[in-house]
Design a protein that fits this description.
The chain has about 450 residues and is of the alpha/beta class. It has three domains: about 5-50 and about 60-105 and about 235-300, FAD/NAD(P)-binding domain, CATH 3.50.50; about 120-230, FAD/NAD(P)-binding domain (3-Layer(bba) Sandwich), CATH 3.50.50.60; about 325-440, FAD/NAD(P)-binding domain (3-Layer(bba) Sandwich), CATH 3.50.50. It has helices at about 10-25, 45-50, 65, 130-140, 150-160, 185-195, 240-245, 290-300, 335-340, 390-400, 405-410, 430-440; strands at about 5-10, 30-35, 40, 60, 70-75, 75-80, 85-90, 95, 100, 105-110, 120-125, 145, 165-170, 200, 205-210, 215, 220-225, 225-230, 235, 245-250, 250, 265, 315-320, 325-330, 345-350, 365-370, 380-385. The strands form eight sheets. Strands 5-2-1-9-22 form a five-stranded parallel beta sheet, covered by helices on one side. It has a five-stranded parallel beta sheet with strand order 11-18-12-13-14. It has a five-stranded antiparallel beta sheet with strand order 23-24-27-26-25. Helix 1 (about 10-25) runs parallel beside helix 8. The termini are far apart.
Length: about 450
């Protein structure tokens, strides 16, 4: 068969690339090839356990693709000949194309631990059938050990404990979530999980997995009848390597328009290399929000450069909810600012998210913002508190990407309402900006 635009991979990146391509090139034939019968919401995977209680409820509907006359093929691409623009699928044979978008995603890291191939060990995969098996095993288990205390590990722990299971997190770093948050925010998450009954072992490395649990480097043995490994992910680059595209361990090398080393082949999402917004260094961030931003650029630029240099680098905007605490981070945390040698100042604040503070369900918001001393530009922010955190950290991300200064942010016009926002006199992020400006201008 023949198509104009072939997209390999049907996750969020592939979907958005297809829709964007349809909007920009309405006369082109667009085909998505994916291995799964349907696509799950990647960030929703932890919530199939204690909240959704059903893998099928975490489904992304194909309706938006079909409504845009985008074809879907459930199959696996085994090889691609870039010179002849020919892909060969496992069950449907040859597919000729004009433009190719690789959205092959990522796969779980399998750490070199003795016993890692055992029967009671599971990984976090995006395959619906695998997730249904994983969910069944969780339901049958009593004590679950999670190796890895990043976002997925912490969210899995929070959800599985809702089923009345014993849950233990083992993290080799000093704190859970410590790649994305500074210590004071990591401790908030640890305290909340501990309050909910989750056991946490930090500064601990699993050296052996047995049928009845794990052994730590300290010699301590933890009992568990099921192990979930959440030790990160790595880009799926095998197909790109076989095609002869330029790749490295961090993904497929792309330019500002998501083009690979072949001018008619693009790569987006977890499989594509990322560059840091501030330093342009390689930044191994895998987020659906980043993937879909890249997808819009690729879909726009397939035949003509329409989105001109719109992605300046990966900021890294993270949001999670652990128990009753919502947490968000954008840009650099303080530890990273120190490592990169930035001359910076920190602004802090604590405020409520409704006004007056006596309203029901009012939550305290804790904010920490980083600015350059020279120019007062945003470097990063961390926020914790109630559910408004998600949009607050997105506003910080917008300020970073837009080159806002502390002084400019301070004069933002905002809408307020007693039930929906902090008081106009003391929003958490604005108070943190004020704190930073006082330090910058008055040395306080």
């Amino acid at each position: 068969m023949k198509t104009d635009v072939l997209i390999i991979g049907g996750g969020p990146a592939g979907i958005v690339a297809a829709i964007t391509a349809r909007q920009n090139y309405p006369d082109k034939r667009i085909l998505i090839v994916r291995k799964e019968k349907y696509v799950v919401v990647p960030c929703g995977i932890p919530y199939i356990f204690g909240t959704l209680k059903d893998v099928d409820k975490d489904k992304i509907s194909d309706g938006i693709l079909l409504d845009n006359e985008i074809e879907i093929m459930v199959d696996e691409i085994e090889s691609v000949d870039p010179d002849n623009k020919l892909a060969v699928s496992k069950n449907h044979g040859e597919i000729y194309f004009e433009k190719l978008i690789l959205a092959t995603g990522s796969k779980p890291v399998k750490p070199p631990i003795k016993g890692i191939e055992g029967n009671n060990i599971f990984f976090v995969r995006k395959d619906p059938d695998y997730l249904k098996m994983l969910m069944k095993k969780v339901e049958e288990s009593n004590d679950v050990i999670i190796i890895g205390g990043g976002f997925i590990g912490a969210e899995f722990a929070d959800e599985i404990r809702k089923l009345g299971k014993g849950v233990t997190i083992v993290e080799m770093l000093p704190h859970i979530l410590s790649i994305s948050f500074d210590e004071e925010f990591c401790e908030l998450a640890e305290q909340e999980l501990s309050r909910l009954g989750v056991k946490i072992h930090t500064n601990s490395k699993v050296v052996e997995i047995r049928e009845d649990g794990v052994v730590l480097s300290s010699g301590e043995k933890l009992n568990g009848d099921m192990i979930i490994v959440s030790a990160g992910a790595k880009p799926n680059i095998e197909l790109a390597e076989k095609m002869g595209l330029k790749v490295n361990k961090n993904g497929i090398v792309v330019d500002e328009y998501m083009r690979t080393s072949h001018p008619d082949i693009f790569a987006i999402g977890d499989c594509a290399e990322k560059r840091d917004f501030f330093t342009r260094k390689i930044k191994p961030v895998m987020l659906a929000s980043v993937a879909t931003a890249e997808a819009r650029i690729a879909g726009s630029n397939l035949y003509k450069i329409k989105a001109f240099k719109q992605l300046k680098g990966t900021i890294g905007i993270f949001v999670t909810k652990i128990g009753d605490i919502s947490m968000g981070a954008a840009g650099l945390i303080e530890r990273q600012a120190i490592e990169e040698g930035f001359d910076y100042v920190v602004g802090r604040s604590e405020a409520v998210d409704k006004h007056p503070g006596s309203l029901p369900d009012t939550r305290k918001i804790k904010a920490k913002l980083l600015f350059t001393k020279q120019g007062e530009f945003f470097l990063g922010g961390q926020i914790a508190g109630g559910d408004t955190v998600g949009e607050l950290i997105n506003l910080v991300g917008f300020a970073i990407e837009s080159g806002y200064t502390a002084s400019r942010y301070l004069t933002l016009q905002i809408g307020t309402h007693p039930l929906l926002t902090p008081p106009p006199t003391a929003p958490a992020t604005l108070k943190a900006v004020e704190d930073a400006i006082l330090k910058l201008h008055h040395g306080k």
